[in-house]
Amino acid sequence: MSPRERELRSRLAGLLRSAGFLRGTLSVRERVCGKKNCKCARGERHVALYVVASDGGKLRQLFVPKAWEEDVREWVQNHHDARAILEEISRAHWARVQKRER
Q1: Over 90: is that where the pLDDT of 32 sits?
Q2: How many domains does the structure of the chain reveal?
Q3: Rounded to two decimals, what is the model's pTM?
Q4: Which domain holds residue 46?
């Protein structure tokens, strides 16, 4: 195993020990509620965070409460990071097979 692969596997193991993983992307939405005296009537829209992912071919969206925002952002980032590391390891093994190197 190359030093680079050893480093990648170590990073992946660290991620697996972390708090959580969530497949999806984050979507920030701004909207107007329609109340006459609300801040959004003056142009300051209400901001909400959603996590979006496909499930069985259907797009699913889930509102993320403010109290959960930091955790959910971390979980989504952990999932993206783990996939990137796995992809890099896979590319290295692809090259090894291509070169017929064990």
Answers
A1: no
A2: 1
A3: 0.81
A4: 3-99
